[in-house]
Amino acid sequence: MPWKRIKLPIKPGRFLVQGDEAVADGAFCAGMRFYAGYPITPASEVITRVQERFEESGEGVYFQGEDEIASIAACIGASWTGVKAMTATSGPGFDLMVENLGYAIFTETPLVIVDVQRAGPSTGQAARPSQGDYHQVRYATHGDYEIIVLTPWSCQELFEFGIRAFNLAERYRVPVIILTDEAVGHLREPVVYPEEIDVFDREHDPDAPPFSFDERDAGPMPLIGDGKALLITGSTHTEAGKRVTQDPEIHRKIVKHLIGKIQHNVSDIFESHEEFIEDAEIVIASYGISARSGFEAVKRLREKGLKVGFFRFKVIWPLWEKYVRERLSGIKKIFVPEMNAGHLSRELERLVNGEVISISELGTNIITPETIVKEVEARL
Amino acid sequence: MKNYMDWIRTDYFPTAFCAGCGHGIILKAIAKALTELEFKREEVVFVSGIGCSGWIPSPYIKADSIHTTHGRALAFATGVKLARPDLTVIVVGGDGDIASIGGNHLIHAARRNIDITCIMADNNNYGMTGGQYSPTTPQGAKTTTSRKGHVEPPFDVAYMVKAAGASYVARYTVAHFPQLVNAIKKAITTPGFSFVQAISSCPTHFGRRNISQDPYEYLDYLKKNSVNIKNVKETDEIRNKITIGEF
Known about the structure:
The complex is a heterodimer.
Chain A: E1 3-7, E2 13-18, H1 19-30, E3 32-37, H2 44-57, E4 61-64, H3 68-79, E5 84-89, H4 91-106, E6 111-117, H5 136-139, E7 148-150, H6 155-172, E8 175-181, H7 182-185, E9 188-193, E10 196-200, E11 231-233, H8 248-263, H9 266-269, E12 272-275, E13 282-286, H10 288-303, E14 308-313, E15 315-317, H11 321-327, E16 333-338, H12 343-349, E17 355-360, H13 369-379
Parallel strand pairs in A: 3-4, 3-5, 5-6, 6-8, 7-8, 13-14, 13-16, 16-17
Antiparallel strand pairs in A: 1-10, 2-9, 7-15, 12-14
Helix pairs in contact in A: 1-2, 1-6, 3-4, 10-13
Chain B: H1 23-36, E1 44-48, E2 64-67, H2 73-83, E3 88-94, H3 95-101, H4 103-112, E4 116-122, E5 125-126, E6 132-133, H5 157-164, E7 168-173, H6 177-189, E8 194-199, H7 203-210, H8 215-224, E9 226-228, E10 242-246
Parallel strand pairs in B: 1-2, 1-3, 3-4, 4-8, 7-8, 9-10
Antiparallel strand pairs in B: 5-6, 7-10
């Protein structure tokens, strides 16, 4: 079985850890032994921690690329040799990675990318948080596909999602993005490292074709060095990797596979954190740092006797539309605090029958519980 | 493997190359070099980019090959080499691929002197997209984006790579087959970054507008206009020549 329970390879216990460090530790515990990245605020602490873990364990290779293009490319090359590879960046660097992100999606390469969001567009504000990459991480590269994006709200979750991201990447042969932001990435808070964790290692089959057309699942993966003269290409290909650049039917099959292997398993991938939904008349729905303020606002509004529920997306992509529609049906008003022009709120507008009200922060301030409480009370 | 054809994936023949394209000669030179060095299939991995050159290893060389994005082959290859240092990693790219869009990866691979061999199949233009000028298009040459003659001077890519820190640098044309095979063998066996600039023929695009559309005349031109770097001192003498040899 590709699932296995392992003893934590670092010291278990309760520690004060920074978010960027926690995600590096989670990834290391999941088996990440290749890291390539380019310095960028506010993600630079990730490579520092990775370097420390590699040095103290004597395992792993890290590499500072000449740019983000080279960094993600090196991760993809390394992943095809069987090693678990990761890179971390922020918006401007993610922009540069997009070309090869598309390559990783099309070649079904397991890979983890940490995007510690900062304010944009362009250089924006390097050391201030934002949630403006919500749709960029989903629709970054051209063509049709599905991708997995996890949105932690704490240092504890950055550690846990560091593990889960690799489990999902290896399980579904897809790049997985951990979408956090400067506020959580640079936060320090207590994190519990457990004694044991569950990890999934990709199904390695030297005799399997490199690609699959299965609309329900990912296929096993052969590796570079198996001696089978593997053909890996980002051009449209047969299952054997032969380039087929003029056949519409083959292209249709590949795209259906890329979408199907994720969508068919959406209930396994999607994850939410819900409180007080059962009797709720209104709901605060959010993710990441904004959800922390949202949860505090829910508690304060409950104290005032309002029937407010809380729905937090721990996974924003794939969006399990059927589930979200069912859970939020009948809710009269859904307030969506987020540090962007209203990305999640737009997604929810097409899914739910209640009124969706965006609480949007376009500056680089974290939305406070007070702001949310005030907004909810004003719109009741 | 005893015969160079053991390294060629003939089941995907006929090749995608135009009639008279020099890239088939580079394919054979690589296959011969691997045969003579007695490599096993599982010991070598090819990484290529986008363009005519990408087809040389992918799919025509029967070994692991990663056909990557335009210009990024060296960056992917760096990841492969770092993760599996025991593998022999060979990058094949074109002049546009390696020296233009991938130029930054090239100089940094040379600076790091990472143990990768890079073979640049240089046909002096972008063949795949219709014959536009590339970083190695000579000044004055006609291409589809320099209809009245190219105004920019070209890169001397071999010198640049040498200056950036590569261990082994050579340049030969497809009209110098034995030398080309030998250079590829030396490149593969020299530790550190090795670079072979293989000047190729492109009768369909570059030749038609500048040299000849006839494959034989093109090869003859390459042979007659090449001068070994050892035999010349003054740059004036070689201004309009292709300097070949080891740098």
